Description:
Blueprint: E1 7-19, E2 22-24, E3 30-34, H1 35-40, E4 48-53, E5 59-67, E6 74-77, E7 89-99, E8 109-113, E9 119-122
Parallel strand pairs: 1-8, 2-6, 3-5
Antiparallel strand pairs: 1-7, 3-6, 4-5, 4-7, 8-9
Amino acid sequence: xxxxxxxxxxxxxxxxxxxxxxxxxxxxxxxxxxxxxxxxxxxxxxxxxxxxxxxxxxxxxxxxxxxxxxxxxxxxxxxxxxxxxxxxxxxxxxxxxxxxxxxxxxxxxxxxxxxxxxxxxxxxxxxxxxx
Length: 131
């Protein structure tokens, strides 16, 4: 517990290694995602999302737009289309503030998908290899 009782920012949900299906440079902006995938990750339309491109090593922040459910859609819109394109693997993450006293029992929602962006598992993250 943090002695001053402050809030701290923690990962709330993560969609791990989704495949970008489309990029629309001349759209206003945002990330259009399969509505079922958004529901599984507890992401709401208009919510800020962080996007980490595993393929290119780029990162950007935008907001979510709900796409057709069970379509597998992951479409990067606007200027961010320069940072991710069809076939790229990405991680989509959301964060939230947690009171220090709740951190001990906290765990984020991690969604694993297949190459068609269908949910295949939800489980805690496993630690990586020792560095």
